[in-house]
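Example record

Each entry pairs one chain with its bound ligand, glycine.
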Amino acid sequence: MTVVVAGGGLIGLAVAWRAATRGLSVTVVDDAPGDGASRAAAGMLAPLTEAAYGEEALRALSRESLARYPGFLADLGGTVALRTAGTVEVGFDADDMAALDRLHAYYVESGLPVERLTAGQARRREPALSPRVRGALHAPTDHSIEPRALHAALLTAAVDAGVEIVRSRIAALAVTDDRATGVVLSSGAVLGGDTVVLALGAWSGALPGTPPLPVRPVKGQILRLRGGDGLLAGTIRALVRGRHVYLVPSADDRLVVGATSEELGFDATVTAGAVHDLLRDAIEVVPEVAELELVETLARWRPGTPDNAPLLGPSPLPGLVLATGHHRNGVLLTPATADAIADLLTEGTLPAYAAPFTMDGRFR
Ligand code: GLY
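Structure tokens for the complex follow.
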């Protein structure tokens, strides 16, 4: 079977790599692999602290994917490591503390691993936290990874496994007799395949030829700062008088501060207001952030869906398989998505853990 993967971000490359290692002939098409949401992602692997109330199915998929990460990284050659210090979520005023209390009760009722920390306990765990922090939660299993390092490793592994990378913009899906038969490149040439895997992230809902898909761009602006090596052990999430901010340390002496969430379509503007708000809140949470060098600001688009969960597996168009709509959890859901789609391509069925995420009946 020949497979064309439309999109060379983390999801597309991981699917291609896993499919190629199972003997399939795979081509990935992308004009700038890894320059979409994968480039902006902070790399939180956070089934607890990223999921909202009621997102139990998504949390189960997220936990499944997190459990797959160690094996996935070992198969990749062990060059990319998880940061396993967990996540501390802090609050500043009485309303923030009430919100953390509600979250804590909800996690405990759901049987999820979480502990309540006093401000002192939080600062002993993360000494750089502001003395103004009033209290915290600790999610010991919410880890992180460096998405850019992961993308580079996946690209190498995919090529080593025989995946061909075609650096071209995709103009449309090729459809013949009501079946996806490949992709039309910007040159007009058609790259044919028995199956097309749609992994175009936020652009998945906008590719001519695809059936209507409920995927929309959700803009996120993010900052990278240099010089904070050792400042934080793990991820810090904060409610700063009701505003959300997160700080994720990475091994290359960067601290990632994110992120806005804006319904502005494919607007790529980095705004002064967003940079100001993110820095103000990050400095409030960790005062030493003010001393770091601001080295990058970036806006990209999450592939949002109506229920915040991905679209996996068969689509309404024969020959077209979906691996998209990962919204805020693309990095986390990469291993589970890759394995599920590789199962579908080689065995004809999705594993049970992925079955709730097909399009069937979800959006009526
Ligand atoms: N997962 C973090 C974000 O989407 O901002």
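The pocket of glycine is lined by residues 42, 44, 50, 220, 258-259, 302, 328 (CB under 6 Å).
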